[in-house]
Amino acid sequence: MDRIPPQKSSSFSPATFREERLGRNLSLGAIKLSEHGLTERVKEDRREGERGHGVENAGEEKGAGDATEAGGDAAALEDVVEPDLAALSEEVDAFLAGRDGDTAPPGISEVTLDKFASAVEQEIGQSEGTEDKWAAGENGEAPPLLAAIKRLTALAAALTAAAEGSKYTIGVHRITGVLHRAMTFVEDEFQSTLEDPRVAKAAQTGDTGSAGGKSMRRPPSFGHGADPDRCVIPSSDGSGAGGENSPTFPPETVDRLRGMADAMITAGYVTECTQVFLVARRNALDASLQSLGYEKASIDDVVKMAWEALEPEASTWIKAFRHTINVSLSGEHDLCARVFPGANDGIGRDIFVDLAHCAMLQMLNFTEAVAMTKRAADKLFKVLDMYEVIRDAGPIIDAFITACADGAAATDSESSNTDALADVKSELASVRSRLGESAAAIFCDLETSIRADVGKQPVPGGAVHPLTRYMMNYLKYACEYKNTLEQVFREHHQTDSDDDGAAAGESSNNPFAAQLMEVMELLHGNLEAKSRLYKDPSLCSIFLMNNGRYMLQKIRGSPEINAVVGEAWSRKRSTDLRQYHKNYQRETWSRVLNLLRDDGVITVKGSVQKTVLKERFKQFNAAMDEIQRTQGSWVVSDEQLQSELRVSIAAVVVPAYRSFLGRFALHFSAGRQTEKYIKLSAEDLEAIIDELFDGNAISMPRRRN
C-alpha cells in the first residue's frame, strides 16, 4: 500500500470534519453528551441561557438535550445541523461586548462554545487548498477566516480570565485547543507565504547581474612585459544594484502576511511568529547570496587559501556585500515595517535587527580572514576594494540606527535593537580598521621590495628595468585609490617626524603622498645604482634615460598619480633626463666630433698632412663601425625619445662630417684610394644614425656611389 504523504493541518480537512470533531471532543472530555452529569450541566446552561437571552438559543439547547435523553449515542452528532458561523459569531460578539460594559455581562453556554469552535474548525478545514482564503472582503474588511480566528482568540482570552475560568472549564479546553490548532495552521500558512517559490525566484533573479553597483576595479597583472591595459572605473552612484530596488512581495501578499502576523501576535504566539519570519527571511538572504555566487567559508578555510583562489572569492564577496547592504537589507527593513506596523512595530524592528546582525556577521568573517592572511603587494587593491565597501556601509547602518531609534521613541518602547545595530556598526568599524592597517602596511612594504632588488645582472641594451615597469604600474593603480589611501594613511600610518624640506611639510598634511614620494625616491636611487652595472658610460646614460622617461610618462599619463607627485618632481626628472642625454652625447659623439676637427695637426702651414688625414679617416670609420655594432643593439623603446636622440645626434655629427668631407676628400686620388679611406657619405652616416637604438646590431654599410 502506497504511503500517503502527510497533509498540512489535516485536522481541519472538511472530509473528516464530523468524525475528527467527535474524536477531539471525546479525547478532550469537553462535551460527552452521554454522561448524566454533563447532561444536567447542559440543561442548567439552557435555563440560564433562557433567562439571559430569551429563547434565541432554546431550540438548539433543547435539541442537544433531546439527543442526550435519546440515548447519549455519540453517533447522534451526525444529525446535528452544521454550525452557522455567522450566527454564532454574533452571539460570541455579544458576549465579548457585554464584558466591556457596566452592566452584568451576558453568559454563553458550553454548547454554543462547542458549536463556535466547531464552526471555526470547519471554516479552516474548508479553506485548505484555496487561494483566496486570506483575501479581504469586498469593502476591505478582514478575510472571514482571519476574522473567525481573531474572534476565537478574543473568546479564549475572555474565558481564561480569572472571573470566568471556573465557570467555563470545558469551554476553555475546547476553545483553547482549537485555537492552538488554528495557530499551527496560520503558522504553516505564514511560512509558506514567506517562502512562496514565485517570490523567491523573483528575489533571486531580480538583479544578480549588476549587484556590484559599480564595476569592480581589476588589479593589474604587473608583469615585466608590455604595459597592462588600463581598467575603466565607473563611478558609483551609491544605489546598490544598478540603482534598482530590492524585489519585494506584492502588496496583496504583504496584506495577508500582516493579517496572519497580527493574528498570531494577538493570540500570544509572538515567538512562533517571529521565528518563522526570521528563518524564512534568513533563508531568502542566503539564497540571494548564493545566486550572486557567494558561499560561506570558515576563517580557517580562507586563511589557508592561495591568493590565486582567494582573489576571485574576494571579488564575489565585494559584490555580495554591496548587494546585501544596498538592496537586501533595505528590502528586509521595508518588509518588516509593512508586515509589523503600528503596535507591532517594535517586533518588526527587532526582527530586522536580528536579520541585519546575522547577515553582517556572516559576511564580516570573510574580511576578518582576509586581513589575517600574509601581506603581499598584489593583495593591496582587493583589500582596498573591501575597505571601501565596508566604509560606504557605515552611513547606511547609521540610517537604520536612526530609523529604529525614532520608531522606538514614537512608540515609547524600550528596545535593544539600536544597541544591536550599534554592535554591527562597531564590528564594521573594527574590520575596516584591520583592512586599513593591512593596506597601509602593504604599501609601505614597497620600500622593502625596492631595497631587496639588488640584482647584479644589467638589463640587456639598457632597456626599461622590470622593477621600474612593475613599480610605476603599481603606483599608477594605487593612485586610482588616492582618496581611500589618503584616508587609510591618516588613520593607520605614522610618518617620521624628522622628514626634511618639502617632504616634511607634505607628510604632515598628506602621509600617503609622503610615502609615495619616498617610494619614488628609493626607486630612482635603485636605478642609479643599477646603471653602474654597465661598463660603458654611454649605455649607463641610455639606461637612465629609458627608465627616467618611462617613469615620467607614467606620471604625466595618469592624472591621479600626477596629482600626488606634483609638477615640481616632474620638472626635476625632466632636468635629469636632459642631463642623461648630454652625458650620452658627450661620452659617445664628442670623440667622433674631435676626429672631424682640424686642430692644427691635419693642416700645417697651409699644407695638408696626408698621412695624418688618412689616419683620421681610418679612426672615424672605426669609430662609426663600433658605434653601429654596439649601439645598434641598444634599446630605446619610447619612440619619441628614440627620435629625439637620433635627431640631436644627426644635427651635430652629419654637418660636421659633410664639412670635413668637403675640405679633405679632394686630397685623395679617385679610385681605390678614395674607397679605402672615405667609406661613408653624409647620407650613409644619416642612415647609420637612423638605425640606432632599435635593438638590432648591423655592420656598417658600404659606401654609396
UniProtKB/TrEMBL annotation:
Alphabetically, the GO molecular function entries are: phosphatidylinositol-4,5-bisphosphate binding
Task: Provide the function of this protein.
Answer: Component of the exocyst complex.
Instruction: Please give an example of a GO cellular component term from this record.
Output: exocyst
Gene Ontology terms describing biological process: exocytosis; protein transport
Q: Which InterPro entries match?
A: Exo70, Exo70_C
Annotated spans, Disordered: 35-72, 196-253
Q: Which residues cross the membrane?
A: none
Which family does this protein fall into? Belongs to the EXO70 family.
Q: Where is the Exocyst complex subunit Exo70 C-terminal domain?
A: 316-691
The lineage, from the top, is: Eukaryota, Viridiplantae, Streptophyta, Embryophyta, Tracheophyta
Q: What is this protein called?
A: Exocyst subunit Exo70 family protein
